[in-house]
Design a protein that fits this description.
This protein is about 35% helix and about 20% strand. By secondary structure, it is α/β, with parallel strands linked by helices. The strands form four sheets. An eight-stranded mixed beta sheet has the order 4-3-5-2-6-7-1-8. Strands 9-16-15-12-14-13 form a six-stranded parallel beta sheet, sandwiched between helices. Strands 17, 18, 19, 20, 21 and 22 form a six-stranded antiparallel beta sheet that branches.
Length: about 525
């Protein structure tokens, strides 16, 4: 496996080093789950060692899985590194270049005092760093006395606060939507599991979130676990997945409910025996178990890319916890097109609970069950930004997703296009390595050609410019015609059957025409990309 850093990972390292150069000693990076935080800090440690004057790097984590992952990635980045692990009975720090240590072990004074010459501190899952144990350990190793300290997390939130006392600045942040758009993470679609008998209003709050024990009892008493099993069988029968629950008893009961409907499921939890937990996780990784139910185990350090369904059976007020749970299903894998989120919903008028829109820090409006997170976000951005951009581009009112006379379509891989005629298409081509787009015209006679004004633009501007180009083409058939509201004709249905397009039961002739156009243009663009 290659651990060559991606462009954004190099940007994160540069931001950390610049933060230290600017006099900020304790700085943090926020990267979504699946962005490769361990790869980033492994390259950071590798780069920094030569400048530490013989001193060493210390990586602090709080879970066994995180320690093992960090040590493995460090050796993958540089097999010549001497990596030592300090936890429980292991004490391999004397000749190590990089020490990967458990915060619980470092909390013991004699264990941390034995470790000398630390010139760089790295904290994995640094949203825990406001806890007294972390603060004591960080102060001991010099985080407040000039030793460069870097924190990594997917979510810089903590329900009981205190993080501002530790981290002076977040110097680099990457939104989950950027990762999805760039293809580093899978898109995610949400579906609510509505349980009318689940009354979350009776569940009290402690420390900023719903009390686990009361929440678990509410889930079990309401029949929500049977509803989860039924929903999994209906919507995710062919997917491997993880179920997040508030208590060990709920995780065990959820596994039983899934097994009762024929789905192989196994529970894991924090105090489970280490060997038993490892064996269960190995069975899941090998495909012997389809679903893992868990309590307080898989929110951090769980890396099984083929996971394609996440069930949030642990309603939460914490956006940070929600992001960590859902993030476990977003890593790409061969044959994996997207992730499915099954979100348990009950009556909760007293509580503001996290939902799919909380996966991103951007304002994207309301999600629904028809569109993915990426689609919701892109449509919201286009609607909001076009209002100001329209005046710059054209005096004609343009409403991309509602009142426009232009028929907008997208290929399966997300490419926006407008079909002008049967032999002419306008589409957006993304500039490699950027978030800028260019308008391109494809014709059957001449292939792909750029317009005279070949300028790379941000997505909203590019969409507006593309529509302007379409309007300017004489006799183009991009507009909406009356026939579109009728029933699909036999030729359309036969075409769909021939190329393998599924036609929804209530589809109109226009809907089917759009499906055919999207499939055809997608094939054309794929052929062009392969020939390039």
């Amino acid at each position: 496996m290659s651990f060559t850093p991606r462009p954004y990972q190099l940007d994160a390292i540069e931001a950390l080093r610049q933060g230290w150069a600017d006099g900020k000693n304790r700085v943090a990076v926020v990267l979504p789950t699946g962005a490769g935080k361990t790869v980033v800090f492994s390259h950071l440690a590798h780069q920094m060692l030569d400048s530490l004057g013989g001193r060493r790097a210390l990586v602090i984590a709080h879970r066994e899985e995180l320690l093992e992952q960090a040590a493995s990635k460090l050796l993958a980045v540089d097999p010549m590194l001497r990596v030592g692990i300090v936890k429980a009975q292991r004490d391999d720090h004397r000749d190590a270049d990089v020490i990967v240590a458990s915060v619980q072990t470092l909390a013991v004074a004699r264990r941390r005092e034995a470790i000398k010459d630390i010139g760089l501190i790295i904290v994995d899952e640094c949203h825990h760093a406001a806890a007294p144990t972390y603060m004591e350990v960080l102060r001991h190793f010099g985080a407040w006395d000039g030793v460069p300290t870097a924190g990594f997390t997917a979510t810089m939130t903590r329900t009981d606060g205190g993080l501002a006392e530790v981290w002076q600045d977040v110097v680099f942040r990457l939104d989950i939507l950027d990762m999805i758009t760039d293809g580093y993470l899978c898109d995610v679609r949400g579906k609510a599991i509505r349980v009318d008998t689940l009354d979350l209003n009776k569940v009290k709050t402690r420390g900023g979130d719903l009390i686990d024990g009361q929440l678990g009892k509410a889930l079990e008493d309401s029949g929500a676990l049977d509803a989860i099993a039924k929903a999994y069988l209906e919507h995710a029968a062919d997917r491997t997945g993880v179920v997040f629950t508030p208590t060990v008893a709920t995780a065990q009961a959820a596994a039983e409910a899934l097994r009762a409907v024929g789905i192989t499921a196994a529970p894991v939890w924090g105090d489970m025996g280490r060997d038993e937990r490892r064996a269960t996780l190995a069975r899941y990784s090998a495909g012997e178990v389809q679903v893992l139910t868990n309590c307080a185990v898989l929110t951090e350090g769980f890396d099984v890319p083929h996971t394609s369904c996440v069930v949030v059976a642990r309603p939460t007020k914490s956006a940070g916890l929600y992001v960590q749970m859902v993030g476990r299903g977003l890593r790409p894998a061969p044959g994996k097109r997207d992730a499915l989120l099954l979100d348990v919903m009950g009556s909760a008028s007293r509580h503001k609970l996290a939902s799919m829109v909380d996966l991103t820090e951007r304002e994207i409006g309301q999600a629904d069950e028809e569109r993915s997170l990426r689609q919701v976000a892109e449509e919201h951005v286009a609607r909001e930004k076009r209002r100001t951009l329209a005046a710059q581009i054209s005096t004609e009112e343009i409403n991309l997703f509602g009142e426009s006379a232009i028929r907008w379509l997208r290929t399966e891989d997300g490419t926006w296009f407008i079909r002008l005629t049967g032999a002419m298409v306008l589409f957006l081509a993304r500039d490699p390595g950027t978030r800028l787009y260019r308008v391109r015209r494809w014709t059957e006679a001449y292939g792909v050609r750029p317009p005279k004004d070949d300028v790379a633009r941000p997505l909203p501007e590019a969409l507006a410019w593309l529509e302007k180009q379409a309007i300017a083409v004489p006799g183009a058939l991009a507009g909406r015609q009356p026939w579109r509201s009728g029933k699909p004709n036999p030729n359309q249905v036969a075409m769909c059957r021939r190329v393998g397009i599924d036609v929804p039961r209530a589809a109109t002739a226009g809907d089917v025409a759009d499906l055919i156009d999207a499939d055809r243009v997608g094939r054309i663009l794929s052929q062009l990309a392969a020939a390039a």
